[in-house]
Design brief:
Blueprint lengths: L1 H31 L2 E7 L3 H4 L8 E3 L9 H7 L8 E5 L3 H10 L5 E4 L11 H13 L3 E4 L14 H9 L3 E8 L1 E3 L7 E3 L4 E6 L19 H16 L11 E7 L9 H10 L3 H10 L23 E7 L2 H17 L3 E7 L2 H10 L5 E5 L5 H11 L3 E5 L5 H9 L4 E6 L3 H8 L2 H8 L2 E6 L2 H10 L21 H10 L5 E7 L4 H14 L4 E6 L5 H7 L18 E3 L6 H7 L2 E4 L16 H5 L3 E4 L7 H6 L4 E3 L3 H13 L1 H15 L5 H11 L3
Parallel strand pairs: 1-9, 2-5, 2-6, 3-4, 3-5, 11-12, 11-14, 12-13, 14-15, 15-16, 17-18, 17-20, 18-19, 20-21, 21-22
Antiparallel strand pairs: 1-10, 6-9, 7-8
Length: 676
C-alpha cells in the first residue's frame, strides 16, 4: 500500500514536471515569435530597466500575466544587473506559474492578500517585496489577482509602494491570442502574431495618498482607470503614433543566452569525460588530494548546514591570504551567515586551514568550469552571493550564477597587460562576463581602467586587499626557539623562489659569505613540494620540511614548509622576493611585497615584477631592484653594513603596506548589501 502511494506520488510529480516543461516551451516559443511593439513612457524607461539601481512596483492586470515575460526579455539586455520578483499566490496554480518562469530568471514571492481570517502569506510577502525594492530589485504585482474580481484593484499595490517609498509603473499589453474562459479572461498568446506593451509614466507615491480626489475618486479607483487606459493604448494599432512623452520601438525577441560564451560552454561539456583522467594525473604530481578530488567535479565533501551562505573563491595562496580579512569582516557583520571558501590549489587549502579556523567557515575545492559540475555545486551549496578574487573569470560558472540570480562580485580585480590583450581578442566573451558582476573593486586605477574597457559596468573604489591584511601570524614559542638556536647569525631570506633563480641566489650567498662568514640564507620555494629536489640541487643542504636544522657551517637552509612566512620574516632583517630575476623558468612576474613590508623587512626584488607592478611602484622609495647575483649580494652586504639605512627602507614600505586597514570592512558592507 505504501509503495502504491509512493508510485502514485511519483507519477503525479512526473506529470507535473512534464506539464511545466511543455507550458514553458510553448509560452517561450509563442512570445519570442511575436513581433512586439513597445510604447514606453520616457520617465518609466529608467525604472523598468533598473538604471543606476532604480526600482519600482510594476503593476498590470492579471489577464496579461502570460505576456509579461516579453517585457522582461526587452528590459534585461539593457541592464544585465537587473533583478525581478513577481508576487504569485501560494496555491497550486500559482506554484506552477512560478516553476514555468523561474528558468527565465523571473523569481517569485509566494503570497496573496489574507482574507476571511485565512493567512495566505500576505504580510510576509509584503515584507519580502519591500526588502526586494530596497535592494535594487523590481517587484511585479497584479492588483486584481489572484482571484479577482476582474480589473478591480486591491489595496496591496498601494500599500507596498507607500511602505517601500517607491513609484508605481503601470503596464498594459495585448497580442495575437485567445481569451481563456477564466475569471480574468486571460490572454493566451499564439505564435507568429503581433503584440504591444504600453508602460505609463511612474506614479510618485510622495505626491499621492488615499484621500478623496477630484470627483470623489479614491486612489485605488484612479489606479484602475489608469491601468484600463494602458490596456486601451496597447490595443491601438502599431501604425498609430504614441502619445507625447512615449518612445515606440518594434522588437523581435530572440532567446536570451545567459551564458557568456556558448563556445566555452560546449567545449567544456565535450571535454568533461577526459577531465577526471586529468585530475588523476594531477594526483600523481601531488597537486590534488585523492580523498577530495571529486570536489573538482562539484561533489560536496562537507555538510552545508541550514544557514544562509556567502561564497568566496580564491585561486591560490596569494589570493587566499588577501581575502581572509574580508571573510572575517563579513562574519563579524553578519553573525547568522556561514561562509564557503573555495580554492584551486592544495597549498591554498592548507594555508586556509592554518590561518582561519572558524565554526562558520567551510572549505571546498572549486569545481572545474564544466556546466554540469557547476550546476551540481550550486544546487548543493545554494549561495546567496559569490565573491571572486583578482582575475578569476570563469564564463560557465558566472553564467550559472546569473541564471540563478546569484549576485557575483569581484574584489581585488586584477587585469595585467598581457591578460588584457588576450581578453581583447575575445571581447564579446569578456564583456558578457564582466557586465554580469554586480560590482567590481579593482586592485588599482590601471586595473580598473582595463576592466572597464573590457565591459565592467559598475566599479567601486580601488584598493588592494593585500595592503589591508594583518601581519602574518607566528608561533611565538617556535620563533623564540629559532632565535636562540640561530643567535649570532645574520639572516637573509629569499622567499617565493622559482626554478631558474635559486642557483643565482646560491651564488649571491657565496659572495655575501666572503664579508660575513656568519650569514645564513633561507631559501623558501614558492611551491614547498620542490623542497627535496631543491635541497639536492643546492648541494644537499638541510631542509626544514624534513626537520633538519642548519649547522654553523651551513650557508643555505631550504625552508619548504607551508604557512611559516610570518616566522621567517621575523627572523630575517632583509628579504628578496622571488619569481623576478632574469632567467627564471616561469617567465617571472614577482610576488606580493606587502607581507614582508608589514613586518618591517627591507626588501629587494628582481626586475620582472609585472604581476605586482602597482605594488612595487607604490613602494619604489623602499624597494631596491637587482638584476644579477652580484647586485643581490652587494645589496645584502649594504643592508648588513648600514642598519640605519636598512631600517629607513623598511619603515618606508611598512607605512605603505598598512595604509588600507579599513578596506575589508568597507567591502564587506558592499557585499552584504547584495544579500536580501
Amino acid at each position: 500500500m505504501i509503495m502504491l502511494r509512493a508510485l502514485k506520488t511519483d507519477c503525479k510529480n512526473m506529470a507535473r514536471k512534464a506539464g511545466v516543461w511543455s507550458l514553458r516551451q510553448y509560452l517561450g516559443f509563442a512570445l519570442k515569435t511575436t513581433r512586439w511593439t513597445f510604447r514606453v513612457n520616457e520617465q518609466a524607461w529608467p525604472l523598468l530597466t533598473s538604471q543606476n539601481g532604480q526600482t519600482a512596483v510594476v503593476a498590470f492586470w492579471h489577464e496579461i500575466l502570460p505576456l509579461t515575460p516579453a517585457l522582461w526579455w526587452w528590459a534585461e539586455p539593457q541592464n544585465p544587473h537587473i533583478r525581478l520578483r513577481v508576487l504569485i499566490s501560494r496555491n497550486r496554480d500559482g506554484r506552477m506559474i512560478a516553476d514555468v518562469v523561474a528558468p527565465w530568471r523571473i523569481w517569485s514571492i509566494a503570497g496573496s492578500s489574507d482574507s476571511k481570517g485565512k493567512n495566505k502569506g500576505g504580510a510576509a510577502a509584503l515584507r519580502r517585496m519591500r526588502a526586494s525594492l530596497r535592494n535594487a530589485t523590481l517587484v511585479a504585482i497584479t492588483p486584481d489577482g489572484p482571484r479577482g474580481p476582474r480589473r478591480q484593484a486591491q489595496q496591496g499595490t498601494l500599500a507596498l509602494a507607500k511602505l517601500a517609498g517607491k513609484p508605481i509603473v503601470l503596464v498594459g499589453a495585448t497580442c495575437t491570442g485567445i481569451r481563456l474562459k477564466t475569471w480574468d479572461k486571460m490572454i493566451f498568446p499564439l505564435p507568429f502574431g503581433h503584440g504591444t506593451m504600453a508602460c505609463a509614466p511612474p506614479i510618485d507615491m510622495q505626491r499621492h495618498n488615499q484621500e478623496e480626489g477630484s470627483g470623489g475618486e479614491t486612489f485605488t479607483q484612479k489606479l484602475e482607470h489608469a491601468l484600463d487606459n494602458m490596456m486601451h493604448l496597447a490595443q491601438q494599432p502599431s501604425s498609430m503614433s504614441s502619445p507625447a512623452g512615449y518612445s515606440q520601438e518594434k522588437v523581435a525577441l530572440s532567446p536570451l543566452s545567459l551564458m557568456p560564451s556558448r563556445v566555452w560552454q560546449v567545449a567544456a561539456t565535450v571535454l568533461s569525460p577526459a577531465l577526471p583522467f586529468f585530475l588523476r594525473w594531477r594526483q600523481t604530481k601531488g597537486k590534488e588530494i585523492p580523498s577530495r578530488v571529486r570536489e573538482k567535479m562539484g561533489f560536496p565533501s562537507r555538510s552545508r548546514g541550514n544557514a544562509n551562505l556567502i561564497w568566496f573563491h580564491a585561486a591560490s595562496v596569494g589570493e587566499t591570504v588577501s581575502i581572509l580579512p574580508l571573510v572575517c569582516a563579513c562574519l563579524a557583520q553578519k553573525t547568522d551567515f556561514q561562509v564557503l571558501v573555495t580554492t584551486g590549489t592544495v597549498t591554498a587549502a592548507r594555508l586556509l586551514a592554518q590561518r582561519l579556523t572558524h565554526p562558520r567557515v567551510v572549505h571546498q575545492f572549486m569545481p572545474l568550469d564544466v556546466p554540469r559540475w557547476g550546476k551540481r555545486f550550486l544546487d548543493y551549496w545554494q549561495p546567496k552571493a559569490a565573491v571572486f578574487t583578482e582575475s578569476e573569470l570563469w564564463p560557465n560558472m558566472l553564467g550559472l550564477c546569473h541564471t540563478r540570480n546569484i549576485p557575483v562580485m569581484l574584489v581585488n580585480g586584477r587585469m595585467s597587460a598581457s591578460s588584457f590583450k588576450g581578453w581583447q581578442r575575445m571581447g564579446r566573451v569578456a564583456r558578457r562576463m564582466l557586465e554580469r558582476f554586480a560590482w567590481v573593486s579593482a586592485r588599482s586605477d590601471e586595473d580598473a581602467q582595463r576592466l572597464k574597457q573590457l565591459g565592467a559596468t559598475k566599479l567601486l573604489e580601488t584598493g588592494d586587499l593585500k595592503t589591508a591584511a594583518p601581519p602574518l601570524p607566528v608561533d611565538e614559542a617556535e620563533l623564540a626557539r629559532l632565535k636562540e638556536r640561530l643567535a649570532g647569525r645574520r639572516i637573509f631570506a629569499a622567499v617565493s623562489t622559482h626554478q631558474g633563480e635559486e642557483q643565482q641566489i646560491a651564488q649571491a650567498a657565496k659572495l655575501i659569505r666572503r664579508d660575513y662568514p656568519d650569514v645564513l640564507v633561507l631559501v623558501i620555494p614558492r611551491h614547498p613540494e620542490r623542497g627535496a629536489d631543491l635541497s639536492v640541487m643546492l648541494g644537499y643542504v638541510p631542509r626544514r620540511g624534513a626537520g633538519q636544522m642548519p649547522t654553523e657551517d651551513d650557508l643555505l637552509w631550504v625552508c619548504d614548509t607551508l604557512g611559516e612566512l610570518g616566522l621567517f620574516f621575523r627572523l630575517a632583517s632583509c628579504v628578496f622576493i622571488g619569481n623576478s630575476l632574469p632567467g627564471v623558468l616561469d617567465g617571472g612576474g614577482g610576488h606580493n611585497p606587502y607581507e614582508p613590508a608589514r613586518l618591517g623587512c627591507a626588501i629587494t626584488s628582481g626586475p620582472l615584477v609585472q604581476n605586482f607592478a602597482d605594488a612595487f611602484a607604490h613602494m619604489a622609495t623602499g624597494i631596491t631592484i637587482v638584476s644579477t647575483a652580484q647586485e643581490l649580494a652587494a645589496w645584502v652586504r649594504d643592508m648588513f653594513a648600514n642598519p640605519g639605512k636598512r631600517q629607513q627602507l623598511a619603515d618606508n614600505v611598512q607605512r605603505i603596506a598598512t595604509a588600507n586597514a579599513n578596506l575589508p570592512e568597507r567591502l564587506a558592507k558592499h557585499i552584504l548589501a547584495q544579500i536580501w
